[in-house]
Amino acid sequence: MGKIIFKEFNQRSPEYLMCKECEAPLALPQDFHCVCPEVGAEGLVFNDRMILNVAVDDENDRLWSVGPLNHIVADVSCIRCREVLGYKYIQVDDRQQTVQNGMLNFKKEMVQRRHGEEVIDGEAPEAVQVNIQ
Prior knowledge:
Residues 15-115 form the Yippee domain. It comes from Sesamum radiatum. By secondary structure, the protein is mainly β. It contains no helices and twelve strands. Strands 4, 5, 6, 7, 8 and 9 form a six-stranded antiparallel sheet that branches. Strands 2-1-10-11 form a four-stranded antiparallel sheet, with no helix packed on it. A hairpin with a 2-residue loop joins strand 6 and strand 7 (69-78).
């Protein structure tokens, strides 16, 4: 594994998704578009294009079954506190049409959103802007 670099967001009015344990920033507002709200019973699924400060344990991927669908996933952890935040879809069952390879699923209870001085729990509906693409 290469050198791990922790990144902060430099903003006057901070608004971002962050690790609930250590408050490490994970994504800016324009990048936390939840693409799969129906999975929301357990977590929030994101494209991985602009997610920061996470490490994927792809050496220990595993089979994850949802009904008749079988996916290969790997844990995603915060690089600051090492807390497991969710998982990344490594290989999605061909019958699945909502998520794609490379998407991240953050467990709602593991993230929160900073909105100025306010901190919104990840399980609150307003924590993520839902934008199905």
